[in-house]
Write a structure and sequence with these properties.
Number of domains: 2
Largest sheet: 4 strands, antiparallel
Order of helices and strands: EEEEHHHHH
CATH superfamily of the largest domain: lambda repressor-like DNA-binding domains
Distance between the termini: 44 Å
CATH topology of the largest domain: 434 Repressor (Amino-terminal Domain)
Number of helices: 5
Strand content: 5-15%
Helix content: 40-55%
Number of strands: 4
Amino acid sequence: MIKTFKNKGLATPTKLISSNTTERDGITMAITAKQNRNHCPPHPGEVIDDMLQDLDYSKSAIAKMLGISRQQLHAILAARKPVSPEVAARLGKLFGNGPGLWLRLQAAHDAWHAEREVDVSAIPSLKIAG
């Protein structure tokens, strides 16, 4: 999804290409933000749900456009199901931002939970000789 918004104090508008990339004056810039390690990254379904609020389509219509069931879309929006690579490809096409964004969002969400839920205390850390 590309949104254009006017920056305060800047003469040219900026396009939001993805959640961490903008373009201004033909230059693409990455936005990096320091994440609070105690705050869970959003599930892709939360991001999709926010985006759908700006669109004039029903969730059923979006599911049909994506070629997935309405139930599957609702499960993703409710963060009960992950975004698979196949669904990420479909979302990337629908919103025009490619599958990578959706896969990175899902991976960040999953990794945050895994770091807190998986017991790794019995696993040693190897050091690479160098």
